[in-house]
Write a structure and sequence with these properties.
Layout: E1 2-12, E2 17-22, H1 31-42, E3 57-67
Antiparallel strand pairs: 1-2, 1-3
């Protein structure tokens, strides 16, 4: 079966990731798997937002899909 988790976060002007959270009501129902998704985002390094980007931050929502394959 597939488990899906939506994560929201903000990329600050300098590339720092802040406000990492599970989108309300969009966790997998498995706290350990949800934590893996949160940790993956928190551990990510990003460059600064491009010079022409008109704001100081960029809100992002991504979906993690965990595919349990039979062994």
């Amino acid at each position: 079966s597939n488990l899906v988790c939506m994560i929201t976060f903000i990329i600050q002007r300098d590339g720092t990731i802040t406000n990492v959270a599970i989108f309300p009501g969009k966790g997998t129902g498995n706290p350990a798997i949800d934590q893996y998704a949160l940790d993956a985002v928190r551990k990510t390094s990003l460059p600064a937002l491009w010079v022409g980007f008109g704001k100081n931050f960029l809100p992002v929502t991504i979906t993690f899909k965990y595919d349990r394959r039979p062994e």
